[in-house]
Please model this.
Amino acid sequence: MPDRGGGPSGPRIRVGRPSRRVRTLLMTLGVLAVLGMAFTMFAGFWTDWLWYRSVNYSSVFTTTLWTKIGLFFVFGVLMALAVGFNIWLAHRLRPPLSAMSMEQQNLDRYRMSIAPYKKWLLLGITALVGLIAGASASGQWRTWLMWVNGVSFGQKDPQFKLDVSFYAFDLPWYRFLLGFGFAAAILSVIAAALTHYLYGGLRVTSPGARATAAATGHLSVLIGVFVALKAVAYWLDRYGLAVKSSDFRATDNWTGLRYVDANAYLPAKTILFCIAVICALLFFATIWRRTWQLPVIGFGLMVLSAILIGGLYPAIVQKFQVQPNEQAKEAPYVEKNLEATRQAYGIDGTKVTDYSGTGNTEDKTKLRDDVGSTASIRIMDPNIVSPTFQQLQQIRNYYAFPENLDVDRYAKDGKDQDTVIGLREINLAGIPKKNWINNHFRYTHGYGVVAAKGTSADAQGRPNFTESDLPSKGDLGTYEQRVYYGEKTTTYSIVGGPQKEIDYSDDNGEKTTSYKGDSGVNLSNPVNRAAYAVAFGEPQILYSGAIGDGSRILYNRTPKERVEAVAPWLTIDGDAYPAVVNGQIQWIVDAYTTTNGYPYSSRTTLGDTTADSLTATNDNRAVVAQQNQVNYIRNSVKATVDAYTGEVKLYQWDTKDPVLKTWMKAFPGTVEPKSDISKDLMDHLRYPQDLFKVQRELLTRYHVKDATTFLSGSEVWQVPDDPTNRSGSAVPPYYLSMKMPDQKAQAFSLTTTFTPTGRDNLSAFMAVDAEAGTSDYGKIRLLKLPTNTTVNGPKQVQSQFNSQEDIAESIRLLRGGDSEVEYGNLLTVPLDGGLLYVEPVYVRGGGLKYPLLRKVLVTYGGQTAFENTLDEALNKVFGADGPATEPPDEGDTTTPPPTSDNPTVQQALEDAQKAFDAGQEALKKNDWEAYGKAQKDLEDALRRAEDAQAEASRAGGAGGSESKPDGKPSGSPSPKPSS
Model:
């Protein structure tokens, strides 16, 4: 046959089948690819199971897994059956003959093309929708577990008289079921309509009826189901009004019914429910009537009713009934919101006391004497002195301290001492040589606690260490010092095998160790090694000779990460802190239970509410929230993570919290009773910062108890910005041992201040008793200042410090050369009706790249002092000498920094002041020659002061402190140079 394609003629090339060898190779590669994908999926599952088993929380893994699998299959199968059945039924109800039209002739081609694959196509469609629905449903495992295990709150909402558990546990599950039903109905309608159209049951352009009777009845029933579900939605919406968010005046996240909700929306939802039920019945009646006339009319009336009754009518009520007399109309509902919000956030027991803000006693000597009994004023700011700890106590470059240290209290001679504490953790960035073995086998852990008194500094402005050196020694006694789990241990380590680990170095050389704990997952099993090699993307785990008998892999090593993993239903506080408890270093982690379904309680966004100037500069301090928007929160769990073994323990703290009881039913055996908390651990538990920040944000509005004042907005406060830095974020709360006016003795407390909205003067001072195990723990005290007088707030106090001429000049001198001034925490202490402000001032410079305490700012009753020590500043402010606020311990020195006790430095500073004064005088006379000479003299004097100060610091560091029994200076690091 001639070539009809127009192409060149010639011999044809026949492409034969691939050879058996090629087919075998291709098949082998395909099988290997499938096995590789399967093993990758298996590796993720298997390593998760091994990790949960290693921390003894395998029940959390299995309960979560089986719940997800159950929801996936149940709702996946239900969706697949719903859609598949309606496709099958539509095909079954197809007309026997199709009309002879161009439309049907075109559809015939599609019908013929899919005829051989109808079953496979049906299975494919149903499997796809089933997988999607199942995956979506599996994500609702928390909702399911809370519904199944829900515990009564014992409180009823004021509108419907239903227990709060209905809104917290039941309503979210009903809404999920309703959403699933809507999705199934809509997908079924679409699938059935397409099938009817393909097989002639529905016609668009063909002559005759547009739909067969069978198609009409089928689709009517499906639409009727959809409308019936809409009726259920209207009924649930009635209850949803109790937890509906709305923007109501100054309250951005108001929930609960308002006047318009109770008197317009609520009856409207009931009427729409009735209309929807009638409309659904009309659609179901189409099975017999075979016409869509009535149901379409009914559906149209339902839509029109939704617009008029559900939208227009409430707007009219709001416009013409509420707005003309809003306070009277809304007051009863505001009172319900006030009560519910205060209960939901645990601020209903807040004690509000009027406070004058001005001192009552004229006896300055008595006031000076009262300072020591009123507060243990902390001048070591844990957010400033971390570089000082780093420089003086790092010892080796492969150790590091957290960016923000922590405040705790330890007993010394029967008296609690506020203590700044940090762990010397491993720092992989500082190891001498980086490679896989060093990173993961040799440099595996940190070593020791470093602690210092919070209320004093030594003569050079350095911390007074109570636990220091390497290995650490001091007041904390004997404990396991190795830190395998900490805030900076973010990578995995393989320990306990043939490869020895670097323990620490001393004067006798490098010490090695091998991990003796049972933490982590055993890698002796080749399957485990292969699984971790795949999961971590590190093939060397599979074949490395450094892994052998006894090798264990440690990962998920940060305290917050471990607690979140074993209790995925908890919200984790942003600040985990270490404590030495019963001979072990324990990380203490506060955890919260929350819900978004507490009726009438206003919502708050945890990420925003817990943000402050510390979280702005340190992401590690941010709260780990399972649910960001909440309107109920409790500090229901205290968790610990052992720094050596990694053991996680969860303790029930709030024994009345129904949300925690619900989760304890869902995960039995995971939370230990409160009675199991040892006394040693109880001594270090404290009120958590993030809960306090949430409560103080709510108290800016909810400190008032009457609706009239709330609605007027005249008493709205704000949390002031931190005046000690330029972040523009809220001031963080401060831990401080202090005595409120109604207390008889000091208590470890968490404190903050408030200012009026848009103003800088002080409106209130807030403190909560943070001492766990005491009868007053968690009691919030609020000192409310009068509104007819002004008392300086933090920003104004800081501005006063900066603008006072002699203080400004002293700070300018401190900044001479390359020095930097850093302001510490501005502490506020109520004292005899007035407010005492104290702020430590640190200086970096003179060759020292870490902050040292140089000055202390104090103000009270309009008197301000800027002195070398806290005692000197207090004496100057009160015009009287008093007892030392921090009695010196044996070996401590309380002499001022070298700037005041070194004659050379003092003389240089005096020369600098004279030169400055001469320069100012020359400027007034326009004598530029004299001004230039004065500036040169000023530079020379500052240089001499800086050199003398640096020399004094070196001399003090070398031998200026009293020697301890081992011959080393008190509070000084080991003299061995860093490697």
About this structure: The longest strand covers residues 848-860. Residues 20-54 form the longest helix (35 residues). Residues 19 and 148 are 60 Å apart (CA to CA). DSSP finds 27 helices and 35 strands in the chain.
